[in-house]
Amino acid sequence: MLKKLAKLLFIVAISVSLTSGSLIFAEKDNSQEFIKKYEQYLQQIAADIQKTQVEVEVTIPKREGYDDYKYGSGTIVAKTTVKSGIELLSGKEVENTVYFIHTNPHMLGDIEIVLKEYKEARIVINIVGKKDSKIEAEVIAWNWATAGLLLKVVVSQELLEDFKFEVAKISNRLPICSAEEKHSDNLLAEFVYAGGYPRGELAVSRGTVTKYVDNETIKTRSYSFRLLKTLHIAFKGLVGPGQSGGGIFVINDKTGKPEWIGTTTLGLDQLTIGTPIDVTVIRFLKQIPDVKDLIDFPKYKFGTWFERARSKTVIYEEYSKEKNEKSNN
Question: Are residues 190 and 130 in the same domain?
Answer without folding.
Answer: no
